[in-house]
Design brief:
By secondary structure, this protein is mainly beta. It contains two helices and seven strands, in the order ββαββββαβ. The strands form two sheets. It has a four-stranded mixed sheet with strand order 6-1-2-7. The longest helix is centred in the middle third of the chain and has 7 residues. The protein is globular and about 40 Å long.
């Protein structure tokens, strides 16, 4: 119990849950500023910002390849799969500190960063 009205033990989106429902269909609940078909709209990417640039790292590719090294805004980065947490992290290659990143669906990331680089 958190003392807040929201029940953190339940999925707030209900029918969002995979393998069916919202996650598997391409339709969206609301209109977005811009769309791009390079990836499926609900493909999960790691949205990364560095040196004034933006990139979308395809999260499933990180899981498959374990590590993807890239440079963004002049900053050498690495997306690394973490088996213990079953997720990926983006770290600065120079010092291992976390980069500015988060999990996001492609349609949402692209709507705000249409000039984004896609890293697969």
């Amino acid at each position: 119990m958190t003392g807040h009205i929201r029940n953190y033990g339940a999925d707030p989106y209900g029918w969002y849950k995979p393998p069916g429902g919202y996650y598997t269909a391409d339709d969206l609940l609301f209109p977005v500023l811009a769309r791009n078909d390079r990836l499926g709209p609900k493909e999960v990417v790691l949205g990364v910002r560095a040196g004034g640039a933006a990139a979308a790292v395809v999260k499933d590719r990180v899981r498959q390849r374990r590590t993807i090294e890239f440079t963004l805004g002049g900053l050498p980065l690495a997306a690394i799969w973490d088996d213990r947490l079953a997720t990926a992290r983006v770290l600065r290659r120079r010092d291992g500190r976390p980069a500015d990143f988060f999990d996001v669906m492609w349609f949402a990331w692209y709507a705000f960063y249409p000039d984004t680089e896609v890293i697969e």
